[in-house]
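Slide 14.
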Amino acid sequence: MSVSVADRLLSPVRLGPYELRNRVVMAPMTRNRAGEGRAPTGAAVRYYEQRASAGLIVTEATHAVPTGVGYPNTPGIHTPEQVAAWRRVTEAVHARGARIFLQIWHTGRISHPSLQPDGALPVAPSAIAPAGQLYTGGGPQPFVTPRALELHEIPGIVEGFAAGARHALAAGFDGVEVHGANGYLLDQFLRDGSNRRTDAYGGPVERRARLLLEVTEAIAGVTGADRVGVRLSPRNPYNSMHDSDPAATFGYVARALDGIRPAYLHVSETRGGEEPLVSPALRAAFGGTFIANGGYTQALAESAIARGAADLVAFGVPFISNPDLPERFAAGAPLAPADRATFYGGDERGYVDYPALDRAPAGTLEPAA
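Slide 15: predicted structure.
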């Protein structure tokens, strides 16, 4: 039986070794609510379990090594306690029939000595400070000039990601997403606005992309290529990021990743503005599963899937305030607005207290876009 355009978003899809119940992905979102020892709490178990009607959940960014920390109360995956806490999350999500990938990151220069072991400087491809301030446990602090990684240190960065993947499997995750987006370490190496190196990891795009590709291959060696995904953000200026030729830079990365054959390529790119979208070229260059992200509504997502612009679509903010988002899509129901004041940090308010549609009080919903 053929699937109508309106049903494609909610139709099953194959992703690597998994059959997903629908094409709705919960996008990775930092919530700054990890507990003691930067381990997920019981509230995190409920948070992810509530949203397990998604076909795939990608967790909040999680640091694989202590030096990868860039914010207060973000979780890790490098201690036995963290692994055990994440295992409670994966068990809860699996009990509801969803798949869950752990997003692994290293924040690089987006950090501060107060967040680093022994008060060390954050590391980066080059000693270039981002503009602005970073929120630390002691309040906002100006970004410091990071220390450029020495060539001999880079294999340790790769191994740190691989170790995180091994711990992710131990915690029961179905796979790992490499965070190569939003101005963090791998993105810092990739874009020429933050990478001024002249060695084997700087200069032309083939060398700037080397660390991202080495990390992806190392994780694939742990999980299998069909259980690793990569997230990119070609035009996102967040964290003082820019590149002189995003189409060439990210086009090269998409073609190179196609040779590794990861489970998916996840591209975050907001439509609109004067610059042309890079996503269509990346979709054409990458032969595997393509996840689109960036301000999608249900209608836009259905259209993207129908015309072949994406295989799955990731939703961020709508999943915060609508834990049962796929069910709301299926019912054509209104979406609840999100309280942005509770996005980061705090208690369970704005985290696990958004009701499902059948428990939402009257007057709290807004029409679905």
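Speaker note: DSSP finds eleven helices and 15 strands in the chain.
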